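QA checklist item 7 of 12: single-chain prediction sanity check.
[x] sequence parsed
[x] length recorded as 449
[x] structure emitted
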Amino acid sequence: MLRWILGGREAQGSVEKSPVLCIGEEQPKNRFTELQVLKGHFDIVRFLVQIDDFRCASAGDDGLILVWNVETGERLQELRGHSQQITAITTFTCNNEVTSHTSLITASSDRSLSLWDPDTGNRVQTISDLQSSVKCLLVLERLCVWVSGGEELCVWNKDFQLQCHRQNHSDTGITALIELPKNCIAAAMDKEIVIYRLTVCDSSVSVAEIRRLSDHQDQIRALININDRLFASGSHAGELVLWDAIEWNILAYQHILWEESQASTQTEIRMGAPKPSEMSIQHLTTNGKLILAAVGSGLYVYNVETKAVVTYRKVAHDSNVLHTMLLSDSELMSCSEDGSVRMWEIQDLPPSAEPASPGFFGMWSFSRSNKQSGPPSKKVMDIPNIRMLELTGDLIGHSGAVQMFVSFKENGLVTCSTDHLLILWKNGEQQSQLRSQVLFQKLEEKGGL
């Protein structure tokens, strides 16, 4: 276990890494000050999934699935069977009257699906020779079935038996799936969201397409549930849409736009012109109240109830943000292609602060995206109660793009990267106290020094 003390501070509106802090200096709010490097993969690690309070599984381009103990960093199991990269992974929990057991389902570019027992490392079921590789998985535990999405939508039971399927007519296929009320699911397919309804009759299941939502102008990159009544989608063009989960109507449409300051010179405008990818919404996360969007290299927090921007940072990382998490209503975390994991806090503006620059958020409207007319645009500087997004911690350990992370709360944080490594981050102060307790216990057992 390495001791890693890092902090973050800001300078003139940009993110800047602070030097390593020394003993006696003021410590940052970042509590993850110890790290342990976990080795085992030999290619890009793209996925992490939490199995229980103490275990997670990692998977990536080497086709391996590794099971880890997050308390000790021990590699518990090595699941081998796929010959090509893993394209999707999820947990599947089967409950009965006595016990509950969690399995892993994986999909691979080798056009196969596998069911694994993470306790033993055994491959319980496998399906080979699919027509195409699966891009996403969704477990419907209430119905005890699971769904795979790619060029076709397939519904499977817990015994890996195909119940029904539908062929899709799209070059990209299904890239994301979420569960909706009334036995419905939403599938992102290029620029559209397709609503399917599952019908369960005795032991058989059927699926039917019932609606297509064609309000996005570009490819949908993120799709998430907010609560039982709402879901959200984000596109490559920076469109954030809030949907009614039952009627499937648009409740809010926000188009994130670049807007340069009027005081900028022509040279500054030209140099600051964004690339198309910088408007793309790569990831969305929510806690039911707020939506956190990773847009290009920036972060944007949106209030679901008030349908307003809470805070934003146009440049939160040096490269595209790949994954985000809301730790609370005021704390959040992000990771990026730049190799860093950053912790942020939403803070009130100082009383004497000048109005924030509109920056990335130029306008939003609540009309449908395919309509030409809409309500007048509204500038971010006109929004009351706009807040600041302050950097509180910077976790530097990976040498490649950090793909995602999983939080185990008090037990630590796990990150994965293109550098083939996982890093287990721990609360340094807590770990120091635990080591002291163990030392005192040993001294007591031996009767002191």
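[x] summary fact logged: The chain has two helices and 35 strands.
[ ] second reviewer sign-off
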